[in-house]
Amino acid sequence: MADELILLDLWASPFGMRCRIALAEKGVKYESREEEDLVHNKSSLLLQMNPVHKKVPVLIHNGKPICESTIIVQYIDEVWKNKAPLLPADPYQRAQARFWVDYVDKKIYEAGRKIWSSKGEAQEVAKKEFIDILKVLEGELGDKPYFGGENIGYVDITLVPFYCWFYTYETCGNFSVEAECPKLTAYFKRCLERESVSKALADKQKVYEFVLQLKKMFGID
Prior knowledge:
The protein is of the alpha+beta class.
C-alpha cells in the first residue's frame, strides 16, 4: 500500500518551499493542498492537523500531521532514505547544520518583514540588520558550492526559499543584495539551477504583489 502524503501549503510561503524542495530532492510524490486565505479563512483540515499554531506548512503522512518546516525537512530525510541524505552523518557536522538552520530561522524572515513593513529610519535600521545577517551567512559559505560542501543539504533547503522574497525587500528598501553580498547571490543562482529549487520557488514579482496586498490589508503605507 502506497503512502498517502499531503502537504498543506501556501504558494508564497518560504517555509512551504522548504518542504517542496526536500520532497523533490528525495523524489517523493505527494498531493499539494493550497491554503487560499490564511488570514480570514483557514481550512478545517489545517485547523484539525495543526491546532496549536494553525499555520502552514503541514505534512500529513498516512493521516498523521508533522508541523514546522524544519521538523518536516528532518522527517522527510529520516523516512525516505533512498536518496542522498540532507543532513550529514557526522554528529558534529549535523550539529553545525542545525546551528545555521536555527540562525536562518531566527533572523531572515523577521529582518525581511521589518524592511517591507517599515519606512524612514526604522527601515534603514532593518536594511542594515538584514545585510549584516547575509554577510554572516556569506562568510560561513566561503568558497563552498553549498553550505554542507559539495551537495545540497539541510541549511541550503532552509535558506534558499527566501531568495524569491529578496526582490520585495530590495524594492521596498531600495537596495541591492547582489551589490552587498555578491558571493551569496552567486550561490542562490547556483541553487536555482537545480530543478528541485527552481520549481519550488515562487515568482519574485508575484511575491512582491502579494506583499503589497498584505501591506494594504494591514494598513501599512
